[in-house]
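Hey team,

Sharing the Large ribosomal subunit protein bL19 run so nobody has to redo it. Sequence (139 residues) first:
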Amino acid sequence: MAEKEVKLITSDPSTYPDFRAGDTVRVHYKIIEGDKARIQPYEGIVLSRKGSGTSKSFTVRRIGADNVAVERIFPLFSPNIEKIELVKTGDVRRAKLYYLREKKGREAMRIKEGKVKVSSTKEVVAEESTATTEETGQE
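Structure output:
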């Protein structure tokens, strides 16, 4: 028998964007069919994040063909997740958006647009304040 080298592959969630419930994400998930592997993107709204440590998971819901809703649970540390893209941020006031399950069609996908991240606005304000002090000659 030939010995196979076993390699433990873990995904690194620190490279994933910071997302939460209400955000629209695109998860690139590796599907293995027989001896072939392909990457399938899955885009939808994050309904919830739960768990702690290496057992963290998140639920993504999308509206498929014929207005049929499909929910999928992804383990955050799964080696089958190639990457996660943050498509848009949502402005919601709940950590679990299970109430969207009762909504039908486009109504289930309607979430307010999120605001700009705070860190990017601080950099712009800091640059403007240094520009004004240079113009006036004050330190």
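Residues 23-102 form a domain with the SH3 type barrels. fold (CATH 2.30.30.790).

Ping me if you want the raw files.
A.
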